[in-house]
Structure to design on (270 residues):
DNA sequence: GACTAATTCTATACTAAGTCAAAAAGTGAA
DNA sequence: TTCACTTTTTGACTTAGTATAGAATTAGTC
């Protein structure tokens, strides 16, 4: 099995053209366990791994992957976007001091009453953020 | 009763020096029903009401009010902060098309099972955002 | 392999939201 | 009124993200 086979399949399945940059970024994102990462972090990581890619391309790629269902955007900080490789429905702890995110176990939190969407709108997603401070 | 009596009391109670700017912004914020507002919106509104105040002061004031417990910051958009005059525990609908926020009735949404805070941290707040798209 | 249409990337300028800091202005107590 | 302390102002600056023209790349056809 060649090194890029899995991410190649993944991009093709998602209907995305498998460019050099997309393949390399997909490898960083999807072959290192579940991750929560910002565009800046991913860009730095790519450069550190001698992947030549512009910051604009990192942003474009993250947004394309999100639109294609490979990533999910997480909004916990008014100053930047986080992207989550785990796209299943789940919620997050957010450590405000460090800017780190962690998944909350499914059984640890549940919403028992869902509100009805107001007239003329549909519910896209329900996000729960448990904000943490250092004890 | 003078026009600024209520907000004057409110600032004094909160331990904040009642400067001209703080009084005027407090009046806009707290005497128009529950509001969700960004710094830019408040600044525009203040200027429209011939309140001379700098944008830096609007930001400073919103942050001071939040720290003093008069406002609550709501993070639903990675590009800007919203401030909520209703500081009780409650959750929000966020209309992604328009950038508008609306409170969710208490009984309409319930969470069973609060997660335990991870080692070394405390839960500051639990935020639920129901993201809406146009139908 | 050559050609080519369409897509994507790059580099850099730009935007929007928010912050910084020195000087000026204002508050409140004595 | 004075004065110590706080707050505001102004305009420069920072940060995260976006725009865009030209270059580079992908992928299908022959």
């Amino acid at each position: 099995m060649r090194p890029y086979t899995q991410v190649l399949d993944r991009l093709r399945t998602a209907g995305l053209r498998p460019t050099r940059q997309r393949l390399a970024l997909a490898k960083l994102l999807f072959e290192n366990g579940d991750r929560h990462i910002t565009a800046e972090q991913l860009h730095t990581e790519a450069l550190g791994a001698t992947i030549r890619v512009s910051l604009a391309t990192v942003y474009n790629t993250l947004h394309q992957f999100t639109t294609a269902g490979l990533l999910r955007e997480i909004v916990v900080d008014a100053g930047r976007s986080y992207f989550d490789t785990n796209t299943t429905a789940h919620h997050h702890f957010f450590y405000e001091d460090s800017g780190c995110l962690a998944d909350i176990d499914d059984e640890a939190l549940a919403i028992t009453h869902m509100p009805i969407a107001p007239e003329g709108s549909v519910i896209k997603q329900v996000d729960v953020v448990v904000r943490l401070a250092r004890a």
Summary: Strands of chain A lie at 36-37, 72-77, 80-84, 91-95, 100-104, 110-113, 121-134. Residues 30 and 85 of chain A are 7 Å apart (CA to CA). Chain A is about 30% helix and 30% strand. Chain A touches chain B through 42 residues (CB under 8 Å).
